[in-house]
Design brief:
Layout: E1 2-6, H1 10-19, E2 25-32, H2 37-50, E3 63-72, E4 75-85, E5 96-99
Parallel strand pairs: 1-2
Antiparallel strand pairs: 2-3, 3-4, 4-5
């Protein structure tokens, strides 16, 4: 099992994993709420399905999103994500953590 941290296009990531003949890996991708607004809002809405205290899903500009995926012979599968404020006045590290129920052990 390998762990990759990747920032960029998922197509390029998949090419690298296939070229290296990796069978199983955990991949973390980073995106910003400002540049990828609809993607970030959809992540927040997904979290709202499982977290009843999740309230913020429309103002994603001040957040960074880290999506954890698992790679196997069928491709990438989302395991969960966490978000954090770019600049926190209260020194909080993480704003929201979600692990999809099928991956909770």
């Amino acid at each position: 099992m390998f762990c990759y941290v990747f920032s960029g296009c998922n197509v390029e990531l998949l090419k690298q994993l296939y070229l290296r003949r990796v069978r199983k890996a955990v991949v973390s991708t980073q995106s910003t709420g400002r540049k990828n607004k609809s993607y970030a809002q959809n992540l927040c809405l997904l979290a709202k399905l499982f977290l009843d205290h999740k309230t913020l899903y429309y103002d994603t500009d001040p957040f960074l999103f880290y999506v954890m995926t698992e790679f196997d012979q069928h491709g990438l599968h989302m395991v969960g994500y966490f978000s954090k404020e770019k600049e926190s006045s209260e020194d909080y590290n993480v704003a929201c953590i979600l692990t999809l129920p099928c991956h909770q052990k």
